[in-house]
Design brief:
The complex is a heterodimer. Chain A is an alpha/beta fold. Chain A contains 21 helices and 13 strands. In chain B, the strands form four sheets. In chain B, strands 5-6-4-2-8-1-9-17-18 form a nine-stranded mixed β-sheet, with helices on both faces. A five-stranded mixed β-sheet of chain B has the order 11-10-12-14-16, with helices on one face. Chain B has a two-stranded antiparallel ribbon with strand order 3-7. Classes of the chains: A alpha/beta, B alpha/beta.
């Protein structure tokens, strides 16, 4: 079963969070992609995971530079899975591939020594271990620098071939040079290092001299000039042939050396694989720690009970946006348990944001991340189900109501398990009478289930039953509306002031109570004309009188 | 004076060699520079701007490499070409730059021999590998500019450029000279020196926006013309011009059609100056250029191209040739003070 519905993942802002968990290595990227939630029954494992992040966060604060260094090393790590597969298959790696393996083991050594300076007892799954045998193997002459070449030290045969080859090349060059100098002296000309000399056709005397010279051969001609080249003498010919043969031998021997090195690496492949796995895990958990630090997060407390308690929770994406706009985030606390909870309250009171905040915090905690809140205590959920409508549903050709019912049907099916169900503005897309009835019936069903259900609504009375928890947004209580209205109309202040005055916090309502009627007041603030508003108030009064 | 002295005297670190056509003598120029470097003990770094299409030939080593380097030379080339060079190579770095022929590696020749070059495909990557080679100890990096890719002369890549031209362009020497002078004069376009306007133009180019600058009561006002590229956008630019317009900033390429459209639909053409990133963004034929200049065209560049020398190859593979002395002297008289060097002449007796 999916831990969270795909649409819900998008709605609660999980993508924002994932983008801010910045892994550096290909192995870290992979580990991040494969991140799985901790499920019920894995409380202990999650606790241990969170404790590692706690320790890492403290270490990062204390040894900032060491972590910069570790992440710099991470940036150099490349995906060598192709070469690893070739090693395992017993193939001979190419020289560039061997260079990459050498680079990797040098990086491993750097990471290991950086980790040592932290004096941290590194958990096994994160322990990056130096592979000295491979370091020695790929740096046989102990240069200690990160370059690679099929060193002479690998094979006496190779060394001796190269030595002979070098001598041959030197001999050829010496003989050619001697010849060149001799001819230059004899003919009083300058010959290029490649043994060619070009003569203008006007220089007839020189041309006939060169033509008769046995050591020179006609090579090329243009309309203007003739080019002569020093004839290869027999000794050079012999040496050249020997050289060609030796190059063949060098190739064969080089291949043997590459085979030998690859076979040697094969016996260490498990260590290499463990190491790249550890690099991926370490990369990811460090990235998670940086996320926690960056968003001022705390370690969630994991319980085995049936609770979800968030104190001063913040939605990371909303918080970042407000920060950019230089506005203050107002944190919200929420405390719910199994069964149904209704959130009621004024328009623009942040009900939807609170719902998303609850969703993302539970998701973060179960993905093994710290959470942006003062504190959080939760029992692990089997799933998260989110229904928040938006324009997208309309694009899919469904009415708001239709799309919502499809989602809610899914939620009801799942509700026997211990999940978290978040529904925004239940049945808002249909007429109030039927909407109310459907909502009430749905809550009646969900309130007895093992899941925690949180529903935001405008309907009166939905939250009145004793076994349904009722939370209300404090909203604009006690705010001077006349002053607020004039501030909003002031172009230098504007709508933003509403955010300043809005109290997004939730309070628990114990006795049946009317949902506050802030809509008319908000409409007034937003500038709906006063005669329409008067008419609305009049209709509302009539309506209430009829009810009585 | 030798080409290498020109470079060393001016302390250039990255120099590109750009050919006006295939067989214009670019490889001869390149090899001449390599030879001169060997003689003067200059440690070279070599790379080329990546090409598409030729991959098969190169990777299978069927095409003979034509560049011979000394031991100690650094090269940046695709990893799949490791086995195609007969110089023994020590790998110094595997970069993160990818090409169709594999990752670009930086290697050092441990013995002299022929090597095969296929470098990164973008200007930015070429610049970065060049800087890596300088960091590994090269005194000078030479970039082999590919055919029809004048862009490797872009100041974004190299500190200076050598232009290779030759008889191959046309049987008519006048045409070759005309084309060559045209290219040289584009390379020598003046740069924008007013600091405030330069700052504005830099921003517009970064935003990839076509903008016009006009003056109003001694203040400069910038208007954005909402079109993506200047291709076929001449009319819209013309509409945006007024009496006070001073500059038109073009972030992309500048083609003759745009200029003719502006010239024919706005009487303000004469009074304005076009600003482009650098001369490699101009695609205008010599004759059109002359016509536009007569109509009052003014173009300035953000970054000047430092043209060091023009090399000529008087011989065409088709068999015809120009008299080397006449060819050289005529071209020289037009491109003064930039030296013209006959690469085929090297040491003719």
């Amino acid at each position: 079963m999916m831990f969270i519905n795909e649409d819900g993942l998008e709605k609660i802002g999980a993508r924002f969070v994932m983008e801010r968990i910045q892994t550096q290595t290909p192995y870290g990227h992979l580990a991040k992609k494969q991140m799985k939630p901790f499920r019920r029954g894995e409380e202990e494992a999650l606790e241990m995971h969170l404790q590692i992040i706690e320790v890492l966060s403290q270490l990062i604060a204390k040894h900032r530079y060491t972590f910069v260094e570790i992440r710099n090393q991470f940036k150099k790590v490349k995906d060598l899975s192709g070469s690893f597969a070739r090693i395992e298959a017993g193939e001979a790696l190419s020289v560039p591939e061997l260079f990459e393996v050498k680079s990797l083991v040098l990086i491993l050594a750097e990471i290991e020594s950086a980790l040592k300076t932290l004096k941290w007892e590194v958990p096994d799954t994160l322990a990056v271990k130096r592979q000295e045998t491979i370091e020695d193997l790929l740096d046989p002459e102990h240069h200690g620098i990160n370059t690679f070449y099929l060193y002479d030290a690998y094979s006496e045969e190779l060394a001796s071939i190269r030595k002979t080859l070098k001598k041959l090349e030197d001999d050829i060059r010496r003989i050619q040079k001697e010849k060149r100098l001799q001819l230059e002296n004899e003919l009083n000309i300058k010959i290029r290092p490649n043994g060619e000399v070009t003569v203008s056709k006007e220089n007839k005397d020189l041309i006939s001299a060169l033509e008769t010279c046995e050591d020179l051969a006609y090579s090329a001609e243009t309309y203007m000039n003739i080019t002569f080249k020093i004839r290869e003498n027999e000794r050079v010919d012999v040496l050249q042939t020997q050289k060609e043969e030796l190059i063949q031998l060098e190739d064969v021997e080089s291949f043997k050396v590459r085979e030998m090195l690859s076979a040697e690496l094969q016996s260490h492949i498990e260590g290499l694989r463990n190491n790249t796995q550890a690099v991926g895990n370490l990369d990811l958990i460090i990235a998670k720690s940086y996320f926690g630090i960056g968003f001022n997060c705390v370690k969630p407390e994991i319980s085995v009970g049936k609770e979800l308690r968030i104190v001063d929770g913040r939605h990371p994406a909303v918080e970042e946006r407000l920060k950019r706009e230089e506005k203050r985030y107002k944190p919200v606390s929420i405390d719910v348990s199994e069964g149904a909870t209704c959130i009621t309250g004024a328009n623009m009171g942040g009900k939807t944001v609170t719902l998303k905040m609850t969703g993302i915090l539970v998701w973060l905690a179960q993905m093994g991340l710290f959470v942006p809140a003062e504190s959080m205590k939760l029992s692990l959920r089997d799933f998260i189900f989110v229904s928040i409508g938006d324009e997208q549903d309309v694009d899919l050709g469904l009415s708001t109501f239709g799309a919502e019912i499809i989602k809610v049907t899914k939620a009801v099916e799942l509700s026997d398990q211990c999940g978290l169900i978040l529904i925004d503005e239940l049945a808002r897309g249909t007429n109030p009478k039927e909407g109310y009835a459907i909502s009430q019936a749905l809550i009646n069903r969900l309130k007895t289930k093992g899941s925690m259900t949180i529903i935001t609504t405008h309907f009166d009375g939905l939250a009145d039953a004793e076994d349904v928890k009722h939370l209300q947004v404090c909203g604009l209580q006690g705010v001077d509306f006349t002053k607020l209205k004039s501030e909003i109309e002031d172009p230098s202040i504007g709508m933003d002031i509403l955010h300043e005055h809005m109290d997004y916090r939730l309070k628990e309502i114990h006795s049946p109570e009317e949902v506050p009627k802030d809509a008319v007041r908000i409409a007034h603030l937003m500038g709906l004309s006063s005669d329409i508003l008067d008419d609305a108030r009049h209709i509302l009064n009539e309506f209430n009188r009829n009810l009585e | 004076m030798q080409l290498i002295d020109l470079i060393r005297n001016r302390r250039h670190q990255v120099v590109s060699v750009v050919g006006m056509a295939k067989n214009a003598g670019k490889t001869v120029t390149l090899n001449e520079l390599i030879n001169q470097s060997m003689e003067t003990g200059t440690v070279l770094g070599l790379t080329s701007i990546g090409r598409d299409g030729e991959t098969q030939d190169i990777v299978t080593c069927t095409q003979k490499p034509s560049i011979y380097v000394d031991a100690g030379t650094l090269i940046a080339t695709a990893e799949s070409l490791y086995n195609c060079s007969d110089a023994r190579l020590e790998i110094v770095e595997m970069t993160n730059f990818q090409t169709s022929m594999g990752t670009i590696m930086i290697a050092k020749a441990l013995s002299p021999g022929y090597i095969q070059l296929a470098g990164p495909c973008t200007n930015a990557d070429i610049r970065r590998v060049s800087e890596r080679m300088l960091a590994y100890g090269a005194d000078l990096v030479i970039v082999d500019g590919a055919l029809d890719r004048v862009s490797s002369a872009s100041p974004a890549i190299s500190d200076a450029s050598v232009l290779a031209t030759g008889a191959v362009i046309s049987r008519d020497m006048d045409k070759v000279i005309e084309q060559s002078i045209h290219q040289v004069s584009l390379f020598r376009l003046p740069s924008l020196y007013e600091a405030d306007i330069k700052a504005m133009a830099k921003e517009a180019i970064a935003l990839k926006e076509i903008q016009v600058i006009r003056s109003k009561n001694d203040a400069l006002i910038v208007d954005h013309i909402p079109i993506k590229t200047a291709l076929g956008a001449g009319r819209k630019i013309a509409d945006a011009l007024c009496e006070d317009t001073l500059y038109v900033i073009l972030p992309g390429s500048l083609v003759s059609k745009t200029l003719f459209d502006v010239a024919n639909s706005s009487k303000h053409f004469k009074n304005i100056t076009f600003i482009v990133q650098d001369a490699t963004r101009l695609f205008i034929e010599p004759r059109e250029w002359q016509l536009l200049i007569r109509k009052g065209l003014k173009v300035v560049v953000m970054e000047e191209i430092n043209l060091l020398a023009v090399t000529i190859n008087p011989f065409a593979p088709a068999g015809y040739y120009f008299d080397p002395v006449t060819f050289k002297e005529r071209l020289q008289s037009f491109v003064e003070p930039i030296p013209v060097i006959d690469v085929m002449e090297g040491g003719v007796l």
